[in-house]
Amino acid sequence: MSITQETLKHHLKDPAIFCCRREKGTVIGAADLEDPGLFEDMIDAGLLTLSENALTIEQVLGSTLLTDVEALTPITKVVLDKVNQVETVPVPTATVKEEKERTMTSSTYVGGTDMIHVSIDKLEGLSLDIPVGVALAGGVQVPPTVAVQENKGEKHVIRKLIKKHIKIVDAEIGNTTSIKDGKITIDENIVKKAAEEDPLCVSLKLDVIRPEERHIYTETIMDVCPIATKIEGELGEGITKVADGVVFMLTGVDEDGVQVHEFGSSEGFLDEKMYFGHPGCADENDIIIRCHAVIKRLSGMTRPGPFAAHKCQDYIIQAIRDELKKYDGEVLREEVCEDVRRKGNPRVVLVKEIMGQGAMHDNVLCPMEPCGVQGGQKNVDCGNVPIILTPNQVRDGSIHALTCIGPATKEMTRHYIREPLVEGLAMDEELDLIGVVCIGSPQVNDEKLWVSERLGSLLEGLDIDGCIITTEGFGNNHIDFIQHIGQAGKRGIPVVGVSFCAYQGQLVVGNEYATAMVEENMDMGGFENNVAGCSCVTKEVAVRAIQMLKNKMAGVEVLPAPKKWSNDVINSNNKLMGLPETELLDNGTLH
Amino acid sequence: MKLTTLEGMQSEIFVPVTPKPVFTELKKPINECKVAFITAGGIHKKSQTPFNTSGDFSYRTIEFDTPSSELMVTHGGFDNSDINKDINAMFPIDRLHELLEEGFIGSLPKETYTFMGGGGNVEKFSNETGPEIAKKLAAQGVDIVVCTGGCGTCHRSATIITRCCEAEGMSCVVIAALPPIARQQGAPRITAPHVPIGSNAGAPNNIPMQTAILKESLEWVRDCPSYNGLKVLPYEYRHNV
């Protein structure tokens, strides 16, 4: 199959291969050449072998063939009258440049309907002042009457949230619930009352795992949840206390001992089953309070079962939150989070595709307490429709993950309270982060499309200049993910997609807008492994995604992805950005 | 407003293309055909080793005379409640026996093969599991293979296996809850009832719906004009999870 002039332009440096038999005397043009995009498939199918002395397309254009040549044969200099000399281009190096000031073009004229028509191609922060009672003669060209006041992205703070990180140095299970001198004590009897919170919860058990004790067996990790509580204001504003140095870890089995898991479980030795330090996980030195739930037989893969475990654990955490509110211990640091507007900067949103398919594929949004369950609404019950949160609301624990998919790619509750993309976008002085849109992933195809269309309208209404769309997990949710990218793309909104794909999660569908994509994988084989939080949005993923978005918005090319997953591409991007290499975890995963 | 840009960045994730066509025309009336049903939905006998839910390219052999009460599901990609209620929601074995009795289909093979396609290893399914299942079905004289997916990557695995069967000379259809995946991955024929993943063959215990989906999928094997043809089936079920 020959190629078009348009395709040709993108492949000048690729090998020149005849698409069909060509006879002596042919002057080589696009119509004679095979599409380089198909080479890999052809090589796989044994139809094509590339040779080292094959010339590139730019070297052969306009040359005349000296002999007959068969289809799918690389063109070499011996069959041509001449070879075009081309300049060798050095491998792209990290060249950071600042885009020139956005240009604004506008025109004003009086249309045939006695209306003043103002057409502006690209503009930020327009301010119009038109005198009242201006009379215009129909059909007369008038000079522009538009006064443009340029906004330069000055920061305007909408609201502030102060997260006080309270130093916790120890935890134990005792006979009363309290926090004293940096030590959390939890009443051992609380588990009985907590388990009564939901009839599907059979029992709960608590223990404390200190950092040096992590070579300990654990059932599958359902969630990692911070202990945080409101002191002043609603979620996203005022003051929140966060216990520093300690997290809850929820584990679960059913009455038959079946792990409460979905796409793979993470039972085993804890030190081997969590990616410590990743946003959703415990940090290296965190004390882990393990809450182990046993739920009713066969309820693990249904929606109410796992929820019962989360709900009952929340009862226990609430008792500690109540103590934390009163506790006046050492504040390690005060983290100031601001919801800001930077008018004049490109308006961007972060779209987080979260799950919405029942079982553990669900999330609680906007609970009463940070990272809590009580008072929140379930994403599935909300119909999976897009819901916009402020960056501060996300950073104040507005999303409690009921955690889905496999251990490695699920975003746990702790992930959201310190999501690197939210942090990165909110802090970026070149951008104006409008909000964080959470959107569910329904289990029916029609509903996926329906929900995605709602997102499209929302993005249009928000009048954004760019967006980043992430998804956790892989597989059917990639239908929604690609749809969302399409909803932005078809409206001309620059979009970057972020997901685990690699080998096992390679996209099952695609479209022409998915051209700037960032990979989350950190498994050697490119599989969903059984290490909790391994392949999620990390700081490095966030930095690459934000840069790609800026490139897309500024019209700087993002080169196409190779046809197969390769960690080299990720590391080449890391290198360009001065980021550390993405080191893959050899977990021996091969399913 | 200024944006810091960086030349030389490359997209990290490849967007798939639909593979080359594979299509075997059905040359017999349905009521003379031997019809097999395979599924990527994680169905197996209670006595068999469950699938590894994080990815598994092995398969289980199910004799068609296995009572449906002896079957169960092991799959992590969707809410299992519907299949727990009625195995026919994914693997309509009881409906197949009814269609045989009714004379709608000619016969059933002695055995069929089930797998858990979630997160399925593409190369293993394409080069090992797929060709093996296809050969075993062809050796039993199967004419038509009907297949349900399950979750998203199940649809990918299901499509890979049906492509292998099609290449082996059988005419295949994927009953897809997620038709975009079956299309993109190159299923020979696709029917698409409006059902959630986890009830891909119709609502649990809704015998008329399951029967109609199965019959119309078989008819689509006969009527589908060309490769990758999709027919939307007018059956709707919403799973209230």
Indicate the percent of residues in helices of chain B.
25-40%
* Uncertain spans of chain A: 89-95, 99-118, 128-146
As for the number of domains of chain A, it is 2
The tally of domains of chain B stands at: 1
Radius of gyration of chain A: 28 Å
Radius of gyration of chain B: 18 Å
Instruction: Please identify the structural class of chain B as seen in this structure.
Output: alpha/beta
Q: What would CATH call the architecture of chain B?
A: 3-Layer(aba) Sandwich
Shape of chain A: elongated
CATH topology of chain B: Rossmann fold
Continuous helix count of chain B: 6
- Strand/helix succession of chain B: EEEEEHHEHEHEHEHE
Q: What do the pLDDT scores of chain A average to?
A: 88
Main beta-sheet strand count, sense and barrel state of chain A: 6 strands, mixed
Distance between the termini of chain B: 47 Å
- Considering residues with a beta carbon less than 8 A from a beta carbon on another chain, report the largest interface and each chain's count: A-B, 92 and 59 residues
Describe the overall structure:
- The complex is a heterodimer of chains A (591) and B (241).
- In chain A, the strands form 7 sheets. A 6-stranded mixed beta sheet of chain A has the order 20-22-17-23-24-25, sandwiched between helices.
- Chain A is 21% helix and 24% strand.
- In chain A, helix 10 runs parallel beside helix 11.
- Chain A has 13 helices and 25 strands.
- Chain A starts with a helix and ends in a 14-residue tail after the last helix.
- By secondary structure, chain A is α/β, with parallel strands linked by helices.
- Chain B has 241 residues and is of the alpha/beta class.
- Chain B has a single domain, classed as Rossmann fold, CATH 3.40.50.
- The termini of chain B are far apart.
- The model of chain B has no long low-confidence stretch (mean pLDDT 95).
- Chains A and B meet through strand 1, helix 11, strand 25, helix 12 and helix 13 of A and strand 1, helix 4 and helix 5 of B.
